[in-house]
Design brief:
The complex is a heterodimer of chains A (about 220) and B (about 350).
Chain A lengths: L4 E6 L5 H15 L3 E6 L12 H6 L3 E3 L19 H4 L4 E6 L2 H5 L6 H7 L2 E7 L9 H15 L5 E4 L9 H5 L2 H11 L3 E7 L3 H5 L5 E4 L11
Parallel strand pairs in A: 1-4, 1-5, 2-3, 2-4, 5-6, 6-7, 7-8
Helix pairs in contact in A: 6-8
Chain B lengths: L4 E4 H11 L4 E4 L6 H10 L7 E4 L3 H12 L5 E5 L1 H6 L1 H9 L4 E7 L15 H5 L10 E3 L4 H18 L2 E7 H5 L1 E4 L34 H21 L3 E4 L6 E4 L2 H16 L4 E6 L1 E3 L3 H7 L5 E6 L5 H8 L6 E5 L8 H12 L6
Parallel strand pairs in B: 2-3, 2-4, 4-5, 5-7, 6-7, 10-11, 10-13, 13-14
Antiparallel strand pairs in B: 1-8, 6-12, 9-11
The chains are: A alpha/beta (about 220), B alpha/beta (about 350).
Chain lengths: ~220, ~350
C-alpha cells in the first residue's frame, strides 16, 4: 500500500529524477490522481520536465518551475508545489535536488508533510558514484540531507549503476553496499532499481527489484 | 583494470586533475561547469597540501594560476565561455611567461551572457590565442567523459613538456553528461622545472618569470623561439580519430558533442548505402591539417558539423586547400544539431557531382 507522499532525495547524480519519474508511472497504474513535483534548485539540466510527454500521456500532473530547461539559471520553486500537501486526494511524488543543498528546498513543505504523516522518504544510492563509494560516505550524505531538510529517511532505493554499460554483476556487487548502509542506519532497502534490459537477471535474485525505463534519449547518446 | 565509476564530465576532469598531481584549483562558479568547482571544493581539503580557492572573479582566479604556475606546481582553473573571456588577459601573460597551466572551458551559448546550453562558439577564441599578442595554447577537445579524464591527464603533461597553457575545450554536454569512466591513469610523469621560482636558498642565481622586455629585439627573439616550439608541437602532438574513413566519399569533420551526433548520423547514412566517414580532431590546435589534406584527395566533399555559426570550417578549408567543397551543418545559441540535421547535410553532400 503506497503512502500518499513519496519523496526521493540523495547524492548529486544518484539517479533520483529517473527513479521518481518511473515511480510516478507505476503509481499511475493503481491510482487515478498522481502528481510529480520537481523541487530541484541545484541543477538546471536533466529535469523531470524532460519526461513531460510520457507523464502527460499517463495523466500525471507535472509540477515544475516555469524556468526548468530554460536559460534562466535561477533556483526557483513552482508555486503549485504547495498542492503536494494541500491536495489530499492526490498521490504525490517529490523529486528533490541533489545533496544537502538540494534538500534545503524541501524544508518549507516538511511541517505539513510531517503533520499529515502519510509519507515515505527514500534515499537513492549509487555505489558507482565517486563521492559515495562506501557505506560510510553514503551515510554522511544521508545525514547531511536529513539535517538540511528536517526530515528522516524511511527507506533506501539502491539505484547502483554505471549507465548504459551496467552489467548484472555490477548490480549484484552493490547489494552488500546497500545492505551495509541499511544495517548501520536501521533503514530498510525498499527497492533495487535496475535498467529494464538487465532486470530479468536481477529479479531472479532480488525480490525487491524494479525495472527502470529511461524515457529521454538525447541525440548525442551512443548506441 | 580498476572498477568503473559513473561520473559527470565536470567531476571527471576535476578528479583526473587531482590524479595528475594538481593540488591547486582557483575558480569562480558558472553554469555549466560549476560541478568542477564544487567537486574540487569537496576533494581538495582532503588532500595533503590541497588548495581550493573560490576567487572574487575569473580575473583574480587566472592571476592566482599565474602565481602558482611560476613556482612549477601543477595548477588549473575552469570556467565557461563568458568567464574564459575574462581570463583572456591572464592567458596571454601565461604565454608571455612560458608557464604551464591547465584551463578548462565548458562552453555555453553566446555572445554576451548568451545561454547556459552547450555550444562550440569559442573555437576561434581558443584556437587563435585567446588573448593579445602572438601566442597559441594547446587545445584539446574531448568527446566523452572518458576523454575528459584522459585529456585532462595528458593536458598537464603537454603543458609541462612545452611550458605552455593547455586548454580543454569542452561544451555544456561534455560537462553535464554522465558516463562510466576508468580512472586508471598510471604514473604521473616528472618534468624538468629548473626554471621555477622556488627560492634560491643562496645556492643559485635567481630565476626570472616575466613577460616584459625592455628592448624590442629581445622580445622579438622570444617570440621567434616560441614559434619554433609551436612548429615542433604541430609536428608531434596532433591527435585525431577516424571513423569509417576507409571507403568514405564524404568526410564529416566534427569535434566534441557534434562528433557524437555525427557518428549516429553516419551509422544511419551507412544503412542507406551512403559512404560517409568522419575525421574527429582531438587537438584543435595543433589542427590535424595533414590527414584532412590527404582525405581531400579521396572524398568528394566535406561537412563541418559545429555548434556555432561556422568557425572550424575555415580551418578545414585551409587544411584541404579548398580542393573539395566544404559544407556547413550548424546550430547555434545553445542548440545541439539533431541526427536529422546532419543526415540532411550528408544527403546534400552526396548529391554533389564530379566525384574525384
Amino acid at each position: 500500500m503506497s503512502k500518499r507522499v513519496t519523496i526521493f532525495a540523495g547524492h548529486y547524480g544518484s539517479g533520483k529524477t529517473n527513479v521518481a519519474v518511473n515511480y510516478a508511472l507505476w503509481l499511475s497504474e493503481e491510482h487515478s490522481k498522481v502528481s510529480i513535483a520537481d523541487l530541484d534548485i541545484v541543477n538546471p539540466y536533466f529535469r523531470s520536465k524532460d519526461s513531460e510527454k510520457v507523464l502527460e500521456e499517463k495523466g500525471i500532473r507535472l509540477i515544475s518551475s516555469a524556468f526548468a530547461n530554460s536559460n534562466v539559471d535561477t533556483p526557483a520553486l513552482p508555486a503549485e508545489a504547495y498542492s503536494i500537501t494541500a491536495d489530499k486526494d492526490c498521490y504525490a511524488v517529490v523529486d528533490v535536488g541533489g545533496d544537502d543543498r538540494g534538500a534545503l528546498a524541501l524544508g518549507r513543505y516538511v511541517p505539513d508533510i510531517l503533520e499529515e504523516n502519510n509519507y515515505e522518504m527514500y534515499f537513492v544510492i549509487n555505489k558507482y558514484r565517486p563521492l559515495t563509494p562506501d557505506a560510510d560516505s553514503a551515510i554522511e550524505v544521508m545525514r547531511e540531507i536529513e539535517y538540511s531538510c528536517g526530515m528522516r529517511f524511511t527507506g533506501i532505493v539502491n539505484n547502483s549503476n554505471i549507465g548504459e554499460e551496467t552489467t548484472p554483476e555490477e548490480v549484484q556487487n552493490s547489494f552488500a553496499y546497500a545492505d551495509e548502509i541499511s544495517a548501520k542506519t536501521g533503514i530498510p532497502v525498499v527497492m533495487t532499481t535496475v535498467d529494464k534490459r538487465i532486470y530479468p537477471q536481477i529479479k531472479e535474485i532480488k525480490e525487491n527489484a524494479k525495472p527502470l525505463t529511461l524515457y529521454v534519449r538525447q541525440s548525442w547518446q551512443r548506441g | 583494470m580498476s572498477e568503473k565509476v559513473l561520473m559527470k564530465g565536470n567531476e571527471a576532469m576535476a578528479e583526473a586533475a587531482i590524479m595528475a598531481g594538481c593540488k591547486h584549483y582557483f575558480g569562480y562558479p558558472i553554469t555549466p561547469q560549476t560541478e568542477a568547482a564544487a567537486y574540487m571544493a569537496k576533494r581538495m581539503p582532503k588532500l595533503d597540501g590541497g588548495v581550493f580557492l573560490q576567487a572574487e572573479s575569473e580575473i583574480a582566479a587566472i592571476n592566482m594560476v599565474i602565481g602558482v604556475a611560476s613556482t612549477g606546481k601543477r595548477v588549473m582553473t575552469s570556467s565557461s565561455s563568458p568567464g574564459i573571456a575574462l581570463k583572456s588577459e591572464g592567458l596571454s601573460y601565461l604565454a608571455g611567461c612560458d608557464l604551464p597551466a591547465l584551463v578548462i572551458n565548458v562552453q555555453r551559448g553566446g555572445p554576451g551572457l548568451g545561454s547556459i546550453q552547450p555550444s562550440q562558439s569559442d573555437y576561434f577564441h581558443a584556437t587563435r590565442g585567446a588573448g593579445h599578442g602572438d601566442f597559441h595554447m594547446i587545445i584539446l577537445a574531448p568527446a566523452s567523459v572518458q576523454e575528459m579524464v584522459d585529456l585532462t591527464f595528458k593536458g598537464f603533461d603537454l603543458g609541462d613538456k612545452y611550458r605552455m597553457t593547455t586548454m580543454i575545450l569542452a561544451d555544456g554536454t561534455m560537462g553535464q553528461m554522465m558516463e562510466p569512466v576508468s580512472l586508471d591513469m598510471g604514473e604521473v610523469k616528472e618534468y624538468d622545472k629548473s626554471w621555477a621560482l622556488t627560492g634560491t636558498k643562496g645556492e643559485r642565481k635567481p630565476n626570472i618569470v616575466n613577460s616584459l622586455f625592455m628592448l624590442p629585439a629581445d622580445l622579438e627573439k622570444y617570440n621567434f623561439e616560441r614559434y619554433e616550439k609551436y612548429k615542433l608541437i604541430e609536428e608531434n602532438e596532433v591527435m585525431y580519430d577516424e571513423y569509417m574513413m576507409d571507403d568514405a566519399e564524404i568526410c564529416i569533420v566534427a569535434f566534441g558533442v557534434a562528433a557524437r551526433v555525427s557518428q549516429n548520423a553516419i551509422d544511419e547514412a551507412r544503412k542507406q548505402g551512403i559512404k560517409v566517414g568522419m575525421i574527429r580532431p582531438i587537438t584543435l590546435w595543433p589542427f590535424p591539417k595533414k590527414v584532412l589534406n590527404s582525405a581531400a584527395d579521396k572524398v568528394k566533399a566535406f561537412v563541418s558539423v559545429e555548434l556555432n555559426m561556422g568557425q572550424m570550417i575555415e580551418d578545414v578549408e585551409l587544411a584541404t586547400r579548398c580542393k573539395k567543397p566544404v559544407l556547413l551543418c550548424n546550430r547555434a545559441g545553445g542548440v545541439i544539431p539533431t541526427t536529422e540535421d546532419v543526415m540532411s547535410k550528408i544527403i546534400e553532400a552526396n548529391e554533389i557531382g564530379g566525384a574525384n
